[in-house]
Structures are given as structure tokens and as C-alpha cells.
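Postdoc handover notes: sequence design on the structure in folder B. Input C-alpha cells:
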């Protein structure tokens, strides 16, 4: 019978000649991949371990199973190279039987260095190196369920709903099956009760479940299971099993997502698989905590970005009723030399995850049109992936996450079954109010294409203000932004799904934003999972059935105004606010956002009460703004005190939309834009060819582009573009500021 032996403990890890003992899971970028500077170690490191044959269960064949090694790896057994694998997010196995001795040296070289064949190579997250998931030895007889084909679980279960019943097709894959061997199929309900059993010679069998209990999302994630045993002389010598759910779904261009014949609005989050101090080497308790937090916020869908996640997390999605978007890391920059890797990663993703009822769409790519959507090789690559997904899985749909400025009329957009767009109007240019109208325009022009919002969000750290503005990185602006997006996106029933970017802050070592480098801070929860930002509770108010009340601004204590605005979030119909024990009145709010004007004098204890629930905070009156609340950028090109700002005149901190109000302001803006394009050309950022011309990212001049740019300032563009290795000097920016200081402001 099959034995699975975990060998996570006591590995020798060698990096640049230095050795240390480690246990798996492990990442060598758990620190330097999160501290900023875009300088985390990317190269080859070695993991080695001696296997003692006496410690292995007796078996005919031994397979090494690696559940995640980023991003390429070579396996050596007894000094002999047995396998190479490209792709850092999937399970893969190596037959090591012939090389096992009484003492066998096992060596795994893992490489996360840049190359031109393995995805991802360009993306806004850290490519942590290491063996960051479990490693096992699988011990099986000569005849066994397949272990070689793209990390297969050896069993494939396909339910089909027929009225109140379900037909279940079970396929298994075998290696070295003999004539005298048979297969015993058994079906179980969620309680483990046997529903049916069959014994046959065939590697596929059909069952019927009468009055089937449906897998019904968060409301009722009911799971059946199937077990198949390989019998020899009526004795089981190997077995595989899988849980599965019976459900139907459809995505309609007019009415959105449907589950089991009923409308089921999908509103949820995206998730990266890392956390502070661990990198991507997560433990089961980390995955469970993530799922608990996602359930608490009330989400019913997760986009598992931008790669295959741990099988344990997919299992949690099945158990908790999450509707899942699963994708491969075909992201940001198309590589003509990377096609085979996109195909192998898609085969692994579908093969390994076919049985999960939570998954409804396979994601082909994310923001892959950074350099334009017209590349014939890019188009062909997507058509191949789309056809492959449909061939391997006839039960699910395909999708893509489009870059915001990708032309909706491009051939690329028409390839998958459904699409979604990543939009950051209100953060990366534009205004928050632009999001809903953009989707209305798309829906009007393309009424038959189901459209979703696959990313939207803005960054927030422990900065605070009573006058939140775009780009200030305050918790208050993030809360305002998400309030607006909730009202705009949730009210449009044709949007088939919405996914906040992101549920958690995550590592992005190239980032230098918000005063804490090395992270993307768009999460509703901090990187260490210790603090839920106010925006977390905005979603909980809309999505969760768990009664609660939340006072916003708990970290914003010192306030200068005589009367300050306080927001309370709750999913209960009425909230009463008390200041030092005195009621400031009761409020009702259809949008779950309750607003109060609070006198600010000395120290005030605030208590919000809704039904049986209450929440507390404190505010204090101060004479001057607490500078600990004000964003100060580390490593900034310019500091605030470098920028002269005469009264009544423009500066590089003014938005382009304000500069455009005067002719001279337009000319300075145009001069800055021309210099920016020149810098893009010099660094091959426009279309991949030096001196190629055109706008960054394949963008085309348009009214929408001008609206997006209008919300930026020259300084913010210069800071943001620095993450793309397009640098402005202090002298260049001060020269633009000096020109603007001569132009009278027009209000």
C-alpha cells in the first residue's frame, strides 16, 4: 500500500559557499525579499540531505515529491542528475528508485535567477527563492496510480447535474497495471457513509447520486469524496482519493455569476501567498489564518494570484465555499522564448486542481500587454493556452486580467470566455468616480462579453489625515476609496466578479512607496496579519452576516480641528455614537457608512453602539498636526522642504488637471512628458526596442488616458516611474518646479 513519508526536517542549505541547517518549508529571501532596494538574492542555492534506506518503508518504487521550489530546480541522487523542472508554484515528482542505496545523498539545486524562459520574470511581487513547500517520498508498488504526469493526483472526478440528481464520472490513471488486477471504486457522502461501490477492470466508472446535495458556496459547501483502490488478489495494493462538489455555474454578460441556477454576486479579494518574516514559506496555520480573515471580511470569492497556490489552501477554499479564480504566472511581459513554460504550467495547474469544486475559471494571463496587445506571438500563445484549457477541462471557463489601458477592441481581449480588468482609477491616475462609468461604457460597447474587475485598490500605511487625498498613503484615503468602489462596483449587476487588490500587504522588493520600502501596501490587512485596516470593515459591513460595529480612525488620535468627522461601519441598521458618555445621536445609513460630527476638545472617549455591539476609540485635541501621521518617503528624489511653493503659484505637487488650466502650465506638462518618453526610449520601456517610440505600456492617446494622467502630479509620476527603472534627477525636477513657480494659479 502507498506510503507518503515527509522529509521536511534537517536539510543542509548552501548559499554562496555558506552552509546552515534548515527545515522545510524554507525561503532564502524571507528577509531581503521584503526590505526594499530591488536587491534580494537571485541565484542558485543547494539543499542536501542523506536518505537512509532502513528508514524508508518497503516498496517497489520511490518517488521524490516536491510541492514547490521557486523557480527552477535540478535533482541529483547519489551525484547523478535525474530531473530538471521549470516553474516555481506547482507539485512535481521524480522517480529515484534506481539510485537509492543504503545511504543516498539527495541534492536539489534551486534557482530563482532572471532568465528568458520561465515565468514570471517581471511582476510587482518578490520571486522568493527556495523549497518553500513540503517535500515527500512516495513509496508505491510496481503497479500504482500514476505519479508522473504533471503532478497528477491520479484521479479525476467529473460531476454533472441532471435535474435533482448527479452523474459522477471517475477516471483514474495507472502505471504498470497487470491483467489480474482490478479497481474498486467507492463513493462517500460528507459524513463518510458509503453511497456506492463498484469493482471492475476499467480505469473509468460512472455513478449516480440521487437527490444530490449541492456544493452551494459559502452557504453550504457540501463535499462528497471518491476512493479508488488497485486490487491484486482482492487485496488493495494502492489507492487514491479525492473530494469533490456537485454544482452548476454560469457567467452571464447581463446578470453576472450564477451558482446552482440562482444569481450569486461574486465579491471578494485577491491573495498572495507570502507574509512578513516567512516569505512564501508558509505553514498550515498561516494558510488557515488567511482563510479565517477572508471569511471574516465576508468575501465569497478569491482570485489566487498570480500562480498556483498550496493544495492545502485550495482544500480550504472547497471547505469554506469560496469561488476561485486560479491562474498561471504568465504576467506583465510576454517572452517569445517562454511559450513552452506557459503550456507546462497550465497543464500542471489544471491537472493538479481539476477536482476542486471551488475553481470556476482558469486564468490565462495577467496584465501581459505591458508592451502592447498586438504582438502576434502573444496572441498565438493565448489561443494555444485557451484551447488547451478547454481540451483538458470542458467544465470550466477561461479568463484574463487585462491591464487597465488595454484596448477593449483588441483581438487579445476576445480570446477567453470571460474577461476582467485591473483598474486603479483614484490611485494610479484618474478619479475614483471613473470606475463605474468605465464599466458602463465597456458593457454598452460589448454587451455580450462578461466583464469583471480583477484588481482595484490603493495603498495605506499608518499615516492619517482629516483631508484625505489621492496619493497620500493614509488609512483614511484608502477607506474613502473603497467606500466609493463598493458603491460603484457592487451596484452593477452585470459585473461578474470583483476582487480587491489585495487582501494582505505583500512583498515587492522593488517598491519604494508609502515610506516603507519593499512592500505593496494595498492590503486590507497588514503584512503580518496583526492589523485590519478600516477598509477591511467597510467590506465586512457590506458582505458579512456577522453583526458588528467598527469605529474608524483608531490609530488617528491627535487631531487639530475643533469639530472632526468620525465614520462608523456596521451591518446593523442603526448606530449611536457617544462622546465622553454623551450621545451625539443615532444615525441610519443604507450604505452601511455612518457619519458623525464630533466636537474635539481635550481628550474624548468615543463609543459606537449598534444593537448589542459596541466599539471604542479615543481622540485628542492638539494645536499642530502630529508629524508622525504624515507620510515621509524614504530615499525620495526630493524632500518636501526642497520644493519652493510661493503663494498663488504652481509647483510640481499640483495635479496635471490643474496645470492644464493655463497655457504655460500645459507647456511645462508637455515638456515633462517629452522628457519622460525620452527616458522610456533610453531604457527600452516603451515597446521593448530601444528608440522604438510610443507611449509606455502600449498605451494610446485618448480622453480616458488624459483623465487618468490628470490626477497625477509631476512629482508623483517621477516617484512611481522610479520602480520601472526610469529615473529623474533632483536637478531635473527642481528645474520643472522653478518654471511652475512663475505661473499664477488659476482656480
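Designed sequence:
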Amino acid at each position: 500500500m502507498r506510503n507518503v513519508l515527509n522529509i521536511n526536517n534537517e536539510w543542509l542549505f548552501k548559499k554562496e559557499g555558506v552552509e546552515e541547517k534548515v527545515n522545510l518549508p524554507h525561503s532564502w529571501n524571507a528577509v531581503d525579499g521584503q526590505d526594499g532596494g530591488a536587491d534580494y538574492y537571485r541565484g542558485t542555492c543547494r539543499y542536501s540531505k542523506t536518505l537512509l534506506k532502513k528508514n524508508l518503508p518497503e516498496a517497489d518504487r520511490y518517488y521524490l515529491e516536491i510541492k514547490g521550489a521557486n523557480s527552477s530546480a535540478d535533482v541529483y541522487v547519489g551525484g547523478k542528475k535525474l530531473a530538471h523542472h521549470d516553474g516555481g508554484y506547482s507539485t512535481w515528482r521524480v522517480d529515484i528508485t534506481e539510485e537509492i542505496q543504503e545511504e543516498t545523498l539527495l541534492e536539489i539545486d534551486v534557482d530563482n535567477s532572471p532568465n528568458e524562459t520561465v515565468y514570471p520574470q517581471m511582476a510587482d511581487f518578490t520571486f522568493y527563492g527556495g523549497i518553500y513547500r513540503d517535500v515527500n517520498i512516495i513509496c508505491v508498488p510496481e503497479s500504482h496510480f500514476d505519479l508522473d504526469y504533471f503532478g497528477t493526483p491520479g484521479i479525476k472526478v467529473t460531476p454533472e447535474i441532471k435535474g435533482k440528481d448527479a452523474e459522477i464520472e471517475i477516471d483514474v490513471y495507472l502505471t504498470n497495471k497487470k491483467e489480474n488486477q482490478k479497481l474498486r471504486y467507492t463513493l462517500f457522502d460528507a459524513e463518510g457513509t458509503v453511497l456506492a461501490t463498484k469493482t471492475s477492470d476499467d480505469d473509468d466508472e460512472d455513478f449516480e447520486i440521487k437527490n444530490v446535495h449541492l456544493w452551494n458556496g459559502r452557504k453550504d459547501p457540501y463535499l462528497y469524496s471518491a476512493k479508488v483502490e488497485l486490487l491484486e488478489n482482492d487485496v488493495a495494493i494502492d489507492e487514491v482519493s479525492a473530494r469533490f462538489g456537485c454544482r452548476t455555474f454560469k457567467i452571464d454578460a447581463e446578470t453576472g455569476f450564477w451558482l446552482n441556477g440562482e444569481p450569486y454576486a461574486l465579491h471578494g479579494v485577491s491573495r498572495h501567498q507570502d507574509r512578513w518574516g516567512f516569505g512564501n514559506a508558509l505553514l498550515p496555520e498561516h494558510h488557515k489564518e488567511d482563510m479565517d480573515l477572508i471569511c471574516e471580511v465576508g468575501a465569497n470569492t478569491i482570485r489566487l494570484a498570480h500562480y498556483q497556490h498550496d493544495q492545502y489552501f485550495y482544500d480550504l477554499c472547497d471547505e469554506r465555499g469560496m469561488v476561485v479564480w486560479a491562474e498561471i504566472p504568465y504576467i506583465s511581459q510576454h517572452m517569445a522564448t517562454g511559450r513552452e513554460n506557459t503550456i507546462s504550467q497550465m497543464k500542471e495547474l489544471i491537472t493538479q486542481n481539476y477536482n476542486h469544486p471551488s475553481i470556476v475559471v482558469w486564468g490565462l494571463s495577467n496584465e501581459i500587454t505591458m508592451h502592447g496587445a498586438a504582438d502576434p506571438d502573444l496572441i498565438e500563445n493565448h489561443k494555444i493556452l485557451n484551447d488547451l484549457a478547454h481540451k483538458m477541462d470542458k467544465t470550466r471557463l477561461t479568463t484574463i486580467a487585462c491591464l487597465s489601458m488595454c484596448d477593449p477592441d483588441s483581438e487579445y481581449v476576445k480570446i477567453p470566455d470571460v474577461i476582467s480588468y485591473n483598474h486603479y482609477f483614484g490611485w494610479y491616475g484618474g478619479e475614483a468616480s471613473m470606475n463605474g462609468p468605465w464599466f458602463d461604457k465597456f458593457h454598452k460597447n460589448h454587451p455580450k462579453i462578461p466583464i469583471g474587475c480583477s484588481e482595484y485598490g490603493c495603498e495605506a500605511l499608518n499615516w492619517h489625515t482629516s483631508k484625505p487625498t489621492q496619493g497620500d498613503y493614509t488609512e483614511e484615503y484608502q477607506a474613502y476609496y473603497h467606500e466609493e468602489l463598493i458603491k460603484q462596483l457592487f451596484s452593477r449587476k452585470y459585473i461578474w466578479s470583483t476582487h480587491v487588490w489585495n487582501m494582505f500587504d505583500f512583498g515587492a522588493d522593488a517598491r519604494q512607496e508609502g515610506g516603507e520600502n519593499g512592500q505593496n501596501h494595498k492590503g486590507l490587512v497588514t503584512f503580518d496579519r496583526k492589523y485590519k485596516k478600516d477598509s477591511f470593515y467597510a467590506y465586512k459591513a457590506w458582505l458579512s452576516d456577522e453583526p458588528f460595529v467598527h469605529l474608524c480612525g483608531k490609530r488617528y488620535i491627535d487631531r487639530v480641528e475643533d469639530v472632526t468627522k468620525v465614520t462608523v461601519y456596521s451591518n446593523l441598521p442603526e448606530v449611536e455614537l457617544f462622546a465622553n458618555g454623551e450621545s451625539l445621536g443615532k444615525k441610519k445609513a443604507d450604505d452601511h457608512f455612518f457619519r458623525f460630527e464630533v466636537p474635539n476638545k481635550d481628550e474624548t472617549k468615543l463609543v459606537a453602539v449598534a444593537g448589542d455591539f459596541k466599539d471604542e476609540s479615543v481622540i485628542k485635541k492638539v494645536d499642530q498636526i502630529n508629524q508622525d501621521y504624515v507620510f515621509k518617503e524614504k530615499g525620495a528624489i526630493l524632500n518636501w522642504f526642497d520644493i519652493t511653493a510661493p503663494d498663488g503659484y504652481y509647483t510640481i505637487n499640483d495635479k496635471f488637471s490643474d496645470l492644464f488650466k493655463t497655457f504655460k502650465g500645459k507647456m511645462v506638462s508637455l515638456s515633462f512628458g517629452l522628457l519622460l518618453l525620452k527616458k522610456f526610449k533610453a531604457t527600452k520601456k516603451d515597446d521593448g526596442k530601444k528608440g522604438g517610440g510610443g507611449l509606455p505600456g502600449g498605451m494610446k492617446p485618448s480622453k480616458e488616458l488624459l483623465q487618468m494622467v490628470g490626477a497625477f502630479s509631476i512629482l508623483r509620476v517621477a516617484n512611481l516611474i522610479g520602480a520601472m527603472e526610469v529615473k529623474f534627477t533632483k536637478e531635473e525636477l527642481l528645474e520643472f518646479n522653478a518654471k511652475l513657480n512663475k505661473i499664477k494659479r488659476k482656480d
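Context for whoever picks this up: The domain at 155-244 is CATH 2.60.40.10 (Immunoglobulin-like). Don't rerun without checking with the PI first.
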